[in-house]
Each structure stands twice: as C-alpha cells, then as structure tokens.
Amino acid sequence: MFYKILGVWLFSSLCSIATAQETFQVKGIVLHAKDLTPAQGASIVGNNLFAVSTTTGAFSINNVSKGTYTFTASHIGCEPTTISVDVGPNMKEIKIFLVESTTVLDEVKVNGKTKNREIQEIAIVSQTVSKEFLNSNRENSLMQTLSKIPGVSTINIGSGQSKPVIRGLGFNRIAVVQNGIKHEAQQWGNDHGLEIDQYGIENIQIIKGPASLLYGSDAIAGVVDIQPNKTPLPNSFGGEVNILGESNNDLLGVSAGIVSRKDKWFYRSRITYRDYGDYKVPADRINYENYIFELHENNLRNTAGNEADASLGIGYVTEGFKSETVFSNVNAKNGFFANAHGLEVRTSSIDYDSSNRDIDLPYHKVNHFKITNNTTVNTGNHELFFDFGYQNNNREEHSEPVPHGYMPQPPNTKERLFIKNTYSLNFRDAFKPTDQHDMVLGLNMEYQNNNIGGWGFLIPEYNRFTAGIFAYDQFEINTDLHVLGGLRYDVGRVDTKAYFDWYPSTVNNEDGSTSYIYLQRSKNKTIDFGSLSASLGLSYIQNKTSYKINVGRSFRMPLANELASDGVNYHMYRYERGDLNLDPEVSYQLDLSFEHTENSFSVGVSPFVNIFQNYIYLNPTSSYYETIQIYEYTQAEVFRIGGEFNASATITKNLQLDASVEYVYSRQQSGPKEGFTLPFSPPLSGLLSARYQFEKLLFFNQPQLITDFRITAAQEQIVPPEEKTDGYQVLNMSFLSELDVFKNSLPLEMRVKLNNVFDTKYFNHTSFYRLIDVPEAGRNISISLTIPF
Q: CA-CA distance, 682 to 664, in Å (whole number)?
C-alpha cells in the first residue's frame, strides 16, 4: 500500500514540476524613484500571486500562466504602485519605481532585535542550526548530520541509525524535541536509533548542558530542539523533490514536500523513502574473540535496511492566533551485523552473503506515529503557547529462535516487542510586567504507557507520569547586560508491572527435591519522585564581544530498565539487573561562554564544569548467569570538565577557513568503578574546514568546494569491558552548486560529497559496532539533487 501512495505522490510532484515548465516566471526589480536605490522588502501582490523583493530589489514569481495580470507593489514610506503585466514568451524584466509618501509622521521609536542579538542576550550556551547547514552537511541520519557541530557526536548503529551525544552524554540524558514535544521512543537501548525524518527541517536549536528548567527530566545533558517550520507567506505555493544516491551502501532515496497557503489556511506535507544495502568497511575480515568473520566484497553483512516516512501539517493563522496540527509516521526496518547482536553466525544456517540488500535475522522493525499541535494566542499583554502531543512507538526485535538455559525452542522470531504510547501537554505564558522584564510561566505534563511482548524479557511493562511547573525571568539591567533566572519543580511516578517467565525453570530445594516454577522477573511496584531545578545566568555584550556565565541544577528520573530490568540482553552479551532503590540523578553545572566577532574573523570558547551527585550506569560484576556476565545498575558521584573552541576566518573574498576542538574529561568519584571515566566517552577531537566560493565554473552557478579534515586523538580512558581506541584522521570533501536546467524555473541544487577520501580504516570509540572491533564505513560517494518548484 505504501508503495502505491509513494508512486502517486511522486507522480503528482513531477507533474507539478512539469506544469511549472509550461508556465512562465515573472521577474523584476523594485527601485526608489528618487535615487534609484533598491527597495528591499517590498511586497508585490497579484491575484493569488505574491513575492517580496530581495536586498537588490529583485523579485520573481514562478508558475504564472499566460495572460494579463495586475500587480500592486508597496513598501514602508512609499505610495503603493499598481502595474499591468502581459505574461507570455519573450517577456522582459519588469521595473517598478516607488515614490516616497508625502505623509508626515511624528517621531516613532522602533525597537527591534535580530535573531543573533536575542541569542547573545540569553545566558544559555546554545547553537542554532539553519536549513542551509542541514542541506550542505546532510548524512545518512539526522544526528550524523549534526555531528559537525562542536560538542555534538553520535553513537552510530550501522549506516542508517544513530543516537545523539552532547559533551559525552547520551541516551535518555538528551531530550530530542520536535514541534515542542519531546520525542519518546525506546531511547535507553544501545541499538535503538532516532525515528525522525531529517528532510523538511528548517531550524534546530542545540542546547549544550543541563536544560531541565525548560524541558524537565531527560534534559540533564542537553537538548536537540527541532523547531516548528516558519509559516508560509499568504497566497503562496511551493515545494521540492530531493533525490539521493550513495555508493558505499548502494543507497537510493527520494523525498518530496509541498507547502501552500491561501489567506488564513495553510498546509505542508512530505513523503520520504530510503532503501540501502549492506555498507562496506575497509576490511575483508573481522576478528572477534579469536574467530574470523570473512566479509564478502567488504560488505558488513546484514546491515541493509529501508525507511518510509510521511507527514502532513494543517494550520490556520490570523491576527493574534496561530495553530498547526502535524501528523507524521516513520517506518523502518534495519538489519544488524549478526555477531553484534548475540547471534552466533558460526552455528547459524542463515546465508548472509546471498545478497547485500536482503534483511535477515537479526533485525528491528519500528513504526513511530506522532500527532502534535502548536497553538499560539496573543492577547496583547500575554502570549500563550499550547503544545499537545500523542506518540505511538511500536518496536519489534527479531532474532533466530535459539533456546537458552531452561527456555525451550521459542515459537517464532519475535524476541521482543515494545509498544509505547505517550501523551504530552505543554503550556507557557510569556509576558512583560515592565520594559525590563521578559517573564515566562509554564507547565509540562506527560503520561507514558509501555507494553511488552515476545519470548525474551528485559524490561517490564510500566506506566509513567511526570508533571512540572516552572518560571523564569530575563531581566535587562541595561542594553548590554542581561540576567536570566528561573525555578522549576517536578513530580513523577513510575508503576512497574509484574512479569513471570512463560516457561518453567528447575529449582533445587533444600530437602533435595526438585521444583519447576515460573520465575518472577519483575514486581508490581509504584515509585514516586520529586525534584527541584534551578538556573541563574548572566550575559554581557561589549561591542563585538559577548560573555556568558550560567550555573544550574538539573535532574533526571530513573527509567524502567534502570529500576526493574532482570533478564539476558543477548544483543549486548550480558545479563542486566535493575535496582528499585535508585534515586533521581542530580547534576550541577557551571557554563561559560566567550565569543568575539570581527568583519573577517570570529573566535569562541565554551568551557564547562559538571558534577553528578548520583550518576546511574550499568556496572559489570564478577557474577555470572548461565556463563553470561551480570551487569547491575548502580550510582556514583561523577566529575566532568571540558568544552569547545571554534574559530572562523575569511582569508579572501572567496576563501573561508573554520576550526573547532572539543574535549570532555570524566571521572567517577565513588562506587565500584571509582577512578574510571564514563562509558562511551568521546576522545579529544578537532575539525578543520575550508570553503572556497568560485565566481563561475562552466555551467555551475555559485559553486562551492568544501573540505573537512577530522583529527581525533586516541581514547585510552575507558571503562571495562571497553577497549582502547587508536586515534585517526579522516578527510571528507563536498562540491555544491546550483544548476539552471529548466527555463523560467528555480535553479536545481546539487551536492556531490566524498566521505573518507582515502578509504581509511579507523574505529569510532562511541560507535555501537566498536564493541566487536568493526571499523567505520569506508569511502563513500553521495550525489544529491534538490528540485524546487
């Protein structure tokens, strides 16, 4: 069914492009009649046609049918001008001259701030990621795309999935937010990726460091906030088709999106499909625990997968009111290299080399359905924000039905099933009691219901409820000095459900007799939590230099797997056991930031100091269960320090150089692993980038050549059973350009990217497959084409 819908969608999109080629483009320029200077921001309005002039005064209106049209051009301080245009072949560029208005106004005081200025005034270490950055740096997953940002790295799970890591912390310590709603799946799993379509995203804000004040639990290490797309202009229609191909894993992908608005109603929709084969590594064999796995043509067998995504947004906007509801669905199936997933290939009858595109056991299937609504009401003195969300995450983990211990032969391949429903509500009231204060009062509520199935047990069924109230104030002492302070209190409840094995186990009694009982793995248990979050920061701007300091207290509620897991995780070769007596994690952090910007040079540094009172982690013990080592969740005090450095310089008009360095140092101050670092700690890493803008190159418009050279030090600070990882250097290159292919149409955007230019064999310390000595992907050529209409 999905393929039929995909076919209809692509056919409609291509028809739209074809229609645009049969129509015409109205192009022109708006000038001030007095001195012939460009009129930037002038509105050109016709019947269901609309455009805004650029900094040069130029404008264009696409997909206009042949005929005679009337357009009205208007600009602040000028008299509106109406012209008549005959649209057809051989049409010349239009020139519109605006005459200054003779109306005399009293003195008007205008207060306005750029987005960059607003970010400088907020005493939070954050970074905004634009649509241009996402398009220029797009990789196989959203988090791999963002990994170029200092302080952001990933836990890669093959070539199609990854998890975010900010300053060395990941999993449920990072809140991923989309359209104001926290993305809720099975984030605790090492091999569970992020179910978000990275196409169609326009703006992301990344907060480095604790953000529980605004986002509640799970934001103790940072936030990836995928913000709602901007509202379309009135009487507008547009879209794009993205086509992608890659050589390393033979990926083929297509994504098509449409955005339209009449007067008050607007809609946007997108559909994406990706299909890829086993990815290649610069090795012909893998040596794991003295067993050699031969790789056919360097393919890491059974790492193929596919993904199908769709979304539809419907919105209404009028003066003082805006509301948009977005429906989205992400469906993916991913294979796993068998011996990274507990399946002994040496004893399996599966022919993993039959094809590089088939998906054999073990594999995951996941479907994430989401509904979000964002509503804003402006009453004059108050701006009210309402966010509503519903999510259904359905994850299946399939593995070969092999009996273990007292377990008989399982009836099917469905080892585990997780069905998680999440209901969310956020409310904020933003107001200004005086000109110097920007205050926000808010409420967050979330309810989760997680059900399980399959023949393998790891975590119990549970219900979880959290609620928090917060308030913060951004106080302007003077134009360049701002203070941000806030408080928050959260309550939470976790209800775990009882679980018994579906098969009997043999138990030897004290009297010498033998019993056969169904072992209990979890209990009916209700646990309540409560915690306080606070933040106080100062921002100072001195000419071209900005300074920030922020100190905060954040928290994180324990998860059901940390509290009540009691089973064998064959995917990770270990027995995992939770602890119902765990306390919420509490973190104290000091953040500093310094940024200086000149016309052709900028530099910034962002150090931090972080202390966890009771960090929760999975500790390997000396005990075993059926020859499998037992890991237990425990808590320890942890000290962390680190930061990021970045610099940028414009060498010539066409050449720009960028450099960044990131580093995190961690030490456990108590507990059984005292003196060790934290698991998955990223090593010292630096990135050098060079961007050259050509004036003109053959038939390429505005071509750019980009080189990225990643230098990563060895990671010798580990936590057993981790292994030390050697340092490495990797070179990536990109070529971006616009192409004028279709007459009277917008230019096509092309990107050719060559990753791992020298096919370097290296290991990423935070990669999922690093545990079994699998190197990262080899050389990869990707070609993407964006066709706007």
A: 7
Percent of the chain with pLDDT over 90: 53
- Of 54, 89, 95, residue with least CA distance to 71: 95
Among 2.60.40.1120, 3.40.30.10, 3.30.930.10, 1.10.3720.10, what is the CATH number of 2-98? 2.60.40.1120
pLDDT of 478 reads: 92
- Which DSSP category does 779 fall into? -
| Phi and psi torsions of 686, nearest 5° | -135, 155
| Structure tokens that stand for 301 in this block | 């067998």
In 392-478, where does DSSP find H-type helix? none
Q: Give the burial string for 499-515 (b: 16+ CB within 10 Å, else e).
A: bebeeeeeeeeeeeeee
Output the pLDDT for position 5. 47
- Residue 509 contacts residue 480 (beta carbons within 8 Å): no
**Dihedral sign for Cα atoms in the order 611, 613, 615, 621:** positive
Share of the chain above pLDDT 70, in %: 93
Please say if the pLDDT value at position 97 is more than 80. yes
Q: Which two tokens stand for residue 158?
A: 């093959």
CATH classification of 118-788, choosing from 2.60.40.420, 2.40.170.20, 1.20.58.220, 1.50.10.20? 2.40.170.20
Query: How much is the mean pLDDT over the chain?
Result: 87
Over residues 231-252, mean pLDDT: 93
